[in-house]
Design brief:
Helix content is about 90%, strand content about 0%. About 25% of the residues are buried. The protein is mostly helical. It has one domain. Helix 6 packs antiparallel against helix 7.
């Protein structure tokens, strides 16, 4: 309980710029929590369902594979759904299917990156805002010294400690935000790599189906 009161006391001493920093911190950690949940590999790539879809495609059962893909709305199942639907609509060449995969990627990848870039912005803005608080605090310190003179070192020490609080608070927001930003960037790169592998596998299976159909026609 004493720790909470100490933190509140320090927060109040930091001045008015502590409030925008607090808002940045709350928004930043809320986004980090949301991205942590949303970028779960098990959610984006439901292993058992994807395995079932791929087995069904290997059997050439397009309608069943499409039905399975529509059971869950994830980035991987949306990719498969669009590829199968495009194939059924006649876009069955390798070039066309790759174009479809690129179209899906251009829509889906920005959704993954959008909020992550916001975390990067918070990591950049927070320390600058904290430093601004320190600068304005130091200005107030020197103004106070001009009135009281150098015979009151307690005014100087108290003022400097208060001025540095915003920098400390800004860094306490920026450091975990920056760590989270690079973590999510790395995770998104992995997700994109997995999507590319999945797209290639599905396209190859669809091309095999198209090839078998052509052979059966002769």
């Amino acid at each position: 309980m004493d720790l909470i009161f100490d933190v509140l006391r320090l927060f109040q001493k930091g001045g008015i710029l502590m409030y925008p920093l607090l808002i940045l911190g709350i928004v930043g950690f809320a986004i980090i929590f949301e991205r942590f949940m949303s970028l779960s590999i098990s959610k984006l790539f439901p292993e058992k369902l994807l395995e079932q879809i791929l087995i069904t495609l290997k059997k050439g059962e397009l309608d069943e594979a499409l039905r399975l893909a529509k059971q869950e709305d994830t980035i991987s199942t949306r990719l498969i759904t669009f590829l199968i639907e495009s194939f059924l609509k006649g876009r069955s060449s390798e070039e066309n299917l790759k174009l479809v995969a690129d179209e899906i990627a251009s829509v889906e990848i920005p959704k993954l990156e959008g909020l992550v870039n916001a975390i990067g912005s918070i990591a950049s803005v927070a320390p600058i805002l904290g430093f601004l608080g320190t600068v304005t605090g130091m200005i107030q310190v020197f103004e106070a010294l001009s009135l009281t003179g150098l015979g009151h070192p307690e005014v100087l020490s108290k003022g400097i400690s208060q001025a540095l609080l915003t920098t400390a608070f800004g860094l306490s927001i920026a450091i975990p935000s920056l760590a989270a930003y690079w973590y999510f960037k790395s995770k998104i790169s992995y997700i994109i790599s997995e999507l590319e592998s999945l797209a290639i596998e599905v396209i190859n299976l669809l091309l095999d189906i198209a090839r078998e159909k052509r052979e059966n026609e002769f």
